[in-house]
Design brief:
A: 256 residues, alpha/beta, four-stranded antiparallel β-sheet, 10 helices, globular, B: 295 residues, mainly alpha, two-stranded antiparallel sheet
């Protein structure tokens, strides 16, 4: 098989002396949606931050389109076509919605901005209504749309999304998962999605990784992951059926 | 009545200079969250370079002004690149001490080069004035005000409409996100220092016909401008300008009305009295931006 779009090999990243991730490897094939699941503190966000250059790994390498990008500055990595939608939206609160979006295309040719803007407003008509409003006044859902739209302004090859469903209503979660599917299928954007909402993530993803305590503990196609007992119990919240239909509270995960 | 207008004009002119230096404080604070206490000394150095170009090298006034602004812009860049960039991640107090140290070094080096006697320059408009009814308008004051208005408008247009200006705003609002969209934060910080140094130089050049320059002028004026920035609400550019005007007017009016009455100089302390009142009554300043920093 050809070299994957993104290849992360054995990265270890530390917060001071504390290991955030201890040896994570993963691959993202061009054109796919890959989900990364795990409990709080499993190291999902750290993996994304290491890929986009906000944190430097002690060991290991990150390769994008066959090029070693380990430890480069985030702005240079963005220029290669990796857009990052950070956790908790992180819009520019006092800039207008439109200026926020324009900043997404900061690294790109000026002439591209206008057409990109129209494209984003097509995806998110709500943002068009509020284009002159400071982003700080948008609702949480609109801010999340804005963060995704801002990332799309780059016309990225790869999009890193950190918990886009965080704090959103089920309707908005559904809307966001639809948008992700659309941009993946129509525009061919490859997506690496970090989620707590395993149900939503596995529904739209082709492939999934499960992180626990800084390591990858399972990796498989999302259909197969969904059928695994462990995933069903610990991430999808299904109960074991049988004579004693109760949860195996005490049972340990098989990989521990 | 004539005196009132006369004082008003000279207070506004004085306030413009304070405001320009205060804008430098705010620019650097917004980009880096550190306070540059050498801001006034940068102004002093800019003034001295202009003096040298005009008095000793006999350059044309306008050419000297342009070159001085350019040189000081580069000086701001160099300060950031060589000293302040190494301080990223250090405690704010350490950074503060570094900028105070830079100020000390600049003052003593300026003293060695130019001596400690007050100096000034002859500008094309020195000692000229308009007669407006009974009011005499010194052109030096008018030039300060007009130049400040032009400069503030240009700064506003830059931040509001140019791509890099908006990127600078974005960086000050959310540094992480700015980095993620591909804005080089290092470049924005460097640009802020260059801009702050250039604006301080303009303030110094405008100050020259009003007052003479000596190595400590930046320290005294810098503290007053810092007070102006706080009165205006640290973190707001228009606020810094308004704060400068308030302080300039307070100083000029107390000098004329109060000093003669009480027999000693209240005007020099009026700035700090005003600062104290402001901190008690409205600690966040006239144009508070801190309380709405995170939405």
């Amino acid at each position: 098989m050809a070299e994957p779009l993104l290849k992360v090999q054995n990265i270890e990243t530390y917060y001071g002396l504390i290991a955030g991730i201890r040896g994570v490897s993963l691959e993202v094939q061009d054109g796919s949606i890959v989900a990364m699941l795990g409990a709080n503190g499993a190291g999902k966000t750290t993996v994304l931050k290491t890929i986009c250059g906000a944190m430097n790994p002690e060991k290991g390498s990150v390769r994008f389109r066959g090029q070693d990008i380990t430890g480069r500055d985030p702005d240079r990595i963005t220029r290669l076509g990796i857009a990052h939608v950070p956790e908790g939206r992180e819009v520019f609160p006092f800039l207008t919605t439109e200026d926020n979006l324009k900043m997404g295309a900061f690294t790109r040719n000026r002439s591209a901005v206008k057409t990109e803007l129209d494209r984003i407003f097509e995806h998110f008509p709500e943002l068009k209504e509020h284009r002159k409003l400071a982003a700080g006044y948008l609702s949480g859902g609109q801010q999340q749309m804005l963060a995704i739209g801002r990332a799309l302004m780059l016309r990225p090859k790869l999009m890193l999304l950190d918990e886009p469903s965080l704090g959103l209503s089920p309707i908005l979660v559904h809307a966001i998962s639809e948008i992700l599917t659309t941009i993946n299928q129509v525009e061919g954007v490859t997506v690496l999605l970090v989620e707590q909402n395993a149900q939503m993530a596995l529904e739209i993803a082709h492939f999934g990784y499960i992180l626990d305590n800084g390591r990858v503990v399972m990796e498989d196609s999302s259909t197969r992951l969904t059928q695994t007992t462990d995933v069903q119990e610990f991430y999808l919240g299904k109960k074991a059926s049988g004579a004693r239909a109760k949860r195996r509270w005490k049972q340990r995960k098989t990989w521990r | 009545m004539e005196t009132f207008f006369q004082l008003l004009l000279s207070g506004i002119a004085q306030g413009c200079v304070y405001g320009l230096v205060a804008i430098g404080f705010v620019l650097i604070y917004k980009a880096t969250e550190m306070v540059n206490f050498a801001q006034g000394d940068i102004m002093m150095l800019g003034a001295f370079i202009t003096i040298t170009l005009i008095n000793h090298l006999h350059w044309n006034y306008f050419l000297a002004v342009v070159i001085a602004i350019g040189v000081m812009g580069l000086f701001g860049l160099a300060l950031e690149r060589l000293l302040l960039r190494r301080m990223i991640g250090e405690s704010p107090f350490a950074v503060l001490m570094v900028t105070i140290g830079i100020g000390f070094v600049m003052r003593s080096v300026a003293g060695m080069i130019w001596g400690h006697n007050p100096r000034s320059i002859v500008t094309p408009y020195t000692d000229q004035s308009f007669q407006f009814g009974a009011v005499v308008l010194p052109i030096a004051d008018v030039v300060v005000i007009v130049a400040t208005v032009v400069l503030c408008s240009l700064t506003f247009l830059f931040f509001r409409y140019t791509r890099f200006g908006i990127a600078m705003q974005a960086t000050s609002q959310n540094q992480l996100a700015a980095n993620y969209v591909g804005i080089s934060v290092k470049r924005v910080v460097a640009a802020s220092w260059a801009l702050a140094a250039a604006i301080a130089t303009i303030a110094g050049i405008l100050l020259l016909p009003l007052k003479s320059a000596y190595p400590e002028v930046g320290l005294i004026l810098g503290i007053k401008a810092f007070a102006a920035a706080i009165v205006g609400g640290f973190g707001s550019l228009p606020g810094a300008m308004i704060g400068g005007l308030v302080i300039g007017l307070a100083e000029v009016f107390t000098k004329f009305w109060v000093d003669a009455e009480v027999g000693f100089s209240v005007s020099e302390t009026s700035v700090y009295i005003l600062l104290l009142i402001m901190l008690i009554v409205r600690p966040s300043g006239l144009f508070a931006s801190l309380q709405k920093k995170k939405v």
